[in-house]
Amino acid sequence: MEDKIREQIALFRYGIIAPLLNGQVEPKGYWVEIEAKSHSIPYYGERKIAAKTVQEWLLHYRRYGFDALKPKKRSDQGNSRRLTPEDQDHILELRKKSLHMPISVFYEQLIEQGEIYKNQVSYSTINRLIRKNKLNGKNVSTSPERRRFAHAKVNTLWQGDLSHGPYVQKKKTFLIAYIDDCSRLVPYAQFFSSEKFDGVRVVTKEALIRRGKPSMIYADNGKIYRSETLQYACAQLGITLAHTQPYDAAAKGKIERFFKTVQTRFYPLLESDRAHSLEELNQRFWRWLEEDYHRRVHASLDGKTPIEVYQLQLEEVKFLGDLSLLETIFLKRHNRKVKHDGTITIDKQLYEVPPGFIGYSIDVREDEHGVYIFEEGKKVAEAKRVSLEDNAHVKRVRSPFSLSEMDILKDGEKHV
């Protein structure tokens, strides 16, 4: 089983035990609820889970942390196997995420991604499996039941989302923000020039540093909030990460309402006095957020302001003890095999790693500052960006075991 699959399974298991860790549910009732339904487990597919199994996961997490939730590595790793019932369930689970794709294309994707081997599993086998389980077309989804809610304590739940912002110097901006469900306080928000995950990473880290740790983060089904990096970070911090259904904006109404307030109260201030840079836009937005939004009486807070409600429960807020942890858990993660020339490729850019890693698959993590190599969750080396021009002028050390053409000629003369 690949490390990526093991981590996905660990994230699933964490999602099951998270409500217990955060005291969101009553244990006895939760055991009954868990055992009563089937769960879609990465790699294994639809399965029932026993209460005893969940209790073991909970115990392992409390004793040894997130890594204890990963399945143990196989002793016969690397050897080929037949298509077992577990493999069939895994393929069906992948199919559910690719219902738009013709079965023939899906079969080719399985081979390309290394899920199956062409000489071991035929197209007809996959085709029969999919048709037998009626997964050859799109499923019809139903609208979920929705009820209005509000949590009584601050930092119980943060809603997160992205909104399209104003143009700055003819370039579009995007506002990424969190809002506390109880106090309507915004832990942190910032405008960015793109919709990439880097923005979510910055906003999440700053929100945690400034306003403490929430029990849950509730975001939409977008790619940046489905990022494995965010899932991993939340699991390490003991935060439940939950998602709305696709295209269901109403499910996170509080953050949507905040964006509307920004549009009606902050954006008009930019019409007569436009921001000339992204930095200026953010500085003016943060000032408006602290001086206007946080200190204005909110209609849903019984005559109080967001900052008043938050400060009244300040003793309940859990701040992070070791902020350096944030620098590690929010790194973007990759798995790469090191080529014979000691390089790896990330985002079409070559990086050089120490010679000892040549031929091995390594755990690589990156941020805006650099690319790092990890082993067993610890940083052990740093990869350096390759400059082909510089490498052309590097003086190579000649091996004492190599023979030049001149050496061979001289050696031949001795024997004449």
TrEMBL record:
It holds the Pfam family HTH_32. This is DDE-type integrase/transposase/recombinase. Belongs to the transposase IS21/IS408/IS1162 family. Signal peptide: none annotated. Residues 140-314 form the Integrase catalytic domain. One of its GO terms (biological process) is DNA integration. It comes from Anaerobacillus isosaccharinicus. GO terms for molecular function: nucleic acid binding. InterPro entries: Homeodomain-like_sf (IPR009057), Integrase_cat-core (IPR001584), IstA-like_C (IPR054353), RNaseH-like_sf (IPR012337), RNaseH_sf (IPR036397). Gene3D superfamilies: Ribonuclease H-like superfamily/Ribonuclease H (3.30.420.10). SUPFAM superfamilies: Homeodomain-like, Ribonuclease H-like. Transmembrane segments: none annotated.
